[in-house]
Structure to design on (253 residues):
């Protein structure tokens, strides 16, 4: 039996049906990459052509173009096929420039940092 | 070759291969295959898959493989406001390493058969 035949028999789940389609790949660090799947293997290593990262901060979003990407499989959480008939994002979300999204990202990060440091300072109160 | 459940041993490498349902079979199969066959019973049923990043997806189980990678079709995210980027995805592939747990339908699988199969595996019968 050839290797391909064995695969067909054993692997009923395969990324083969996603080849040459536009996909959204969610990574373990929360990043979301869009691109066309050109290749993959059993570890879910994947090659994305025309990849871009979709950064979402609140109601703002921005697609930052990246080019050809090879993603190591261990970082993949989910690979989703984009349904072209549906809206990609809720209609109230606003597309902004990369500079603006970076600013929004930084503001968000500063806010969470502040929250963390406030909590640290209040720890001596022993609120529990 | 076992004709009851359509699994057979590949003569080239002695690997046991499962084609159909195995839980109803009384023959010996490797332990980790038990869960693959268990989940194969659930194909076509609605399950909720919760991932390690807290994303929970309710959907029909489309297929799975020997690593327990999961393929879902017609997905619905449990908390869609928190995950706007999931809105336009209908079918998806989930890597085995990121699954926290799978919630099954109450009538999912015959517990008695699973129980028996597990004891048989544990005995090494």
């Amino acid at each position: 039996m050839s290797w391909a035949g064995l695969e067909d028999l054993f692997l009923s789940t395969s990324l083969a049906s996603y080849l040459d389609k536009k996909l959204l790949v969610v990574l373990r660090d929360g990043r979301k990459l869009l691109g066309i799947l050109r290749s993959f293997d059993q570890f879910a290593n994947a090659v994305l052509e025309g990849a871009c990262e979709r950064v979402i901060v609140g109601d703002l979003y921005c697609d930052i173009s990246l080019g050809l990407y090879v993603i190591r499989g261990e970082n993949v959480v989910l690979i989703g096929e984009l349904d072209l008939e549906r809206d990609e994002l809720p209609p109230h979300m606003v597309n902004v420039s990369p500079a603006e999204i970076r600013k929004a990202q930084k503001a968000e990060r500063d806010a969470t940092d502040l929250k963390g440091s406030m909590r640290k300072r209040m720890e001596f109160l022993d609120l529990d | 070759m076992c004709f009851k459940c359509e699994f057979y041993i590949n003569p080239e490498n002695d690997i046991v291969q499962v084609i159909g349902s195995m839980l109803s079979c009384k023959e010996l199969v490797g332990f980790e295959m038990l869960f693959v066959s268990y989940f194969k019973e659930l194909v076509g049923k609605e399950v909720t898959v919760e991932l390690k990043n807290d994303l929970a997806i309710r959907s029909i189980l489309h297929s799975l493989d020997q690593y327990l990678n999961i393929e879902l079709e017609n997905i619905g995210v449990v908390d869609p406001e928190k995950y706007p980027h999931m809105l336009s995805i209908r079918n998806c592939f989930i890597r085995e390493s990121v699954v926290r747990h799978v919630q099954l339908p109450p009538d999912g699988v015959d517990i008695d058969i699973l129980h028996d199969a597990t004891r048989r595996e544990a005995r090494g019968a």
Remarks:
- Chain A has one domain: 3-125.
- Chain A has a mean pLDDT of 87.
- Residues 3-125 of chain A form a domain with the SH3 type barrels. fold (CATH 2.30.30.100).
- The CA atoms of residues 59 and 91 of chain A lie 10 Å apart.
